[in-house]
Amino acid sequence: MKLTQPTRITMVGGGSWATALIKILSENNVAIKWWLRKETDAAHIKQFNHNPSYLSDVQINPKKVKVCTKIRDAVKDTDYIVLAVPAAFVADALTGLTPEHFAEKRIISAIKGMIPATNQLVTDWVSEQYNVSPSQIAVIAGPCHAEEVALEKQSYLTIASQDAACAEAVSDLLRCRFVQTTPGDDIYGVEYCAVMKNIVALASGITRGLGYGDNFQAVLVSNAMQEIRRFVDAIYPKHRDLSGSAYLGDLLVTAYSPFSRNRTFGTLIGRGYTIQSAQAEMNMIAEGYYAVKSIHAINQRFNVDMPITNAVYSILYERVAPSGAMNRLSAGLR
Ligand SMILES: NC(=O)C1=CN([C@@H]2O[C@H](COP(=O)(O)OP(=O)(O)OC[C@H]3O[C@@H](n4cnc5c(N)ncnc54)[C@H](O)[C@@H]3O)[C@@H](O)[C@H]2O)C=CC1
Ligand SMILES: O=C(CO)COP(=O)(O)O
């Protein structure tokens, strides 16, 4: 019988999503190098086969996964580099790498955020910084919380790339007993939607924290879908079905699930926490906090009608009281 070599994958990130993706990938024939920032976390995983800081119930298979804390070692002799750190920290994580480290590899972004310093999508930033061609890049999208992957709950991912072969190959890698995958080509559409649904989750959480109910939430989310459509159509027009799971599905899971980082952060803000105290309360990162600033800045050029984004921005960056901002927003929703 012919033995096939395992696919070589580098996972960059030590948080919940990186840990969940390691679990999914380990179901297939892979050899993973897992880069983590913290020496203590890496040492713990080597010794106990669990991430001590995130999803610590997930068993790490030491035959398939080797941990390391040196990014240059992590990206050597690999076929795929998966980026799974919050967007604000991706530049830090990749410090010391040059375009040569990315040559002839596929780069997969699992990140749902914007690069705060440049207001760029992660894939645009990677392309520009490391001279990576669009055909080497894919994005992991879809409504999928790491916590449910840990529990092996049935989940769905969409893998988008401008290169159909790349989307197919990554879909195959991520398909397993409890995850179904679909390849797609709307890389910018799914990336922008993933960024914007985090802003809506903040709004959803803020209004929850303020005491608004399910009736309001439903109207908020349906208005949010229209806002996302207006923005994405303005910035990257393309025929796309926004009712698909990579778009509407992702918005729904994040706006309603108690697992959502962004919704949790928003709820704390709605209850009266300061931004610093809400951040300190969570061991996790709410991408929407950074994304709302970037999307607000980009929209200064496009002038799309974005009342939900504007309300969240005013609360987080202009010190407007959540109750007043949401009162004004609610008057305009239909
Ligand atoms: N958690 C999930 O269910 C999903 C997350 N994602 C995306 O995956 C990306 C990673 O998110 P999560 O794994 O959820 O993160 P997380 O919130 O679980 O963990 C925080 C991560 O940020 C890192 N971090 C925290 N402070 C840092 C600092 N000062 N410098 C450098 N790194 C620091 C931590 O090491 C850890 O990797 C995000 O873009 C998120 O939107 C996408 C789909 C699902
Ligand atoms: O994007 C995610 C799930 O699809 C994770 O983000 P939240 O945790 O904020 O919902």
UniProtKB/TrEMBL annotation:
One of its GO terms (biological process) is glycerophospholipid metabolic process. SUPFAM superfamilies: 6-phosphogluconate dehydrogenase C-terminal domain-like (SSF48179), NAD(P)-binding Rossmann-fold domains (SSF51735). NAD(+) binds at F89, A146, R261. One of its GO terms (molecular function) is glycerol-3-phosphate dehydrogenase (NADP+) activity. Pathway: Membrane lipid metabolism; glycerophospholipid metabolism. Keywords: Cytoplasm, Lipid biosynthesis, Lipid metabolism, NAD, NADP, Nucleotide-binding, Oxidoreductase, Phospholipid biosynthesis, Phospholipid metabolism. It holds the Pfam family NAD_Gly3P_dh_N. InterPro entries: 6-PGluconate_DH-like_C_sf (IPR008927), 6PGD_dom2 (IPR013328), G3P_DH_NAD-dep (IPR006168), G3P_DH_NAD-dep_C (IPR006109), G3P_DH_NAD-dep_N (IPR011128), NAD(P)-bd_dom_sf (IPR036291). The active site is at K197. One of its GO terms (cellular component) is cytosol. Its main location: cytoplasm. Residues 186-326 form the Glycerol-3-phosphate dehydrogenase NAD-dependent C-terminal domain. Substrate binds at K112, R261, N262. The keyword Lipid metabolism applies. Sn-glycerol 3-phosphate binds at K112, G142, K197, D250, S260, R261, N262. It catalyses: sn-glycerol 3-phosphate + NADP(+) = dihydroxyacetone phosphate + NADPH + H(+); sn-glycerol 3-phosphate + NAD(+) = dihydroxyacetone phosphate + NADH + H(+). It is found in: Cytoplasm. Its EC number is 1.1.1.94. NADPH binds at S16, W17, R37, K38, Y54, K112, A146, R261, I285, E287. Residues 9-166 form the Glycerol-3-phosphate dehydrogenase NAD-dependent N-terminal domain. Belongs to the NAD-dependent glycerol-3-phosphate dehydrogenase family. Catalyzes the reduction of the glycolytic intermediate dihydroxyacetone phosphate (DHAP) to sn-glycerol 3-phosphate (G3P), the key precursor for phospholipid synthesis. This is Glycerol-3-phosphate dehydrogenase [NAD(P)+]. The lineage of its organism: Bacteria, Pseudomonadati, Bacteroidota, Cytophagia, Cytophagales.
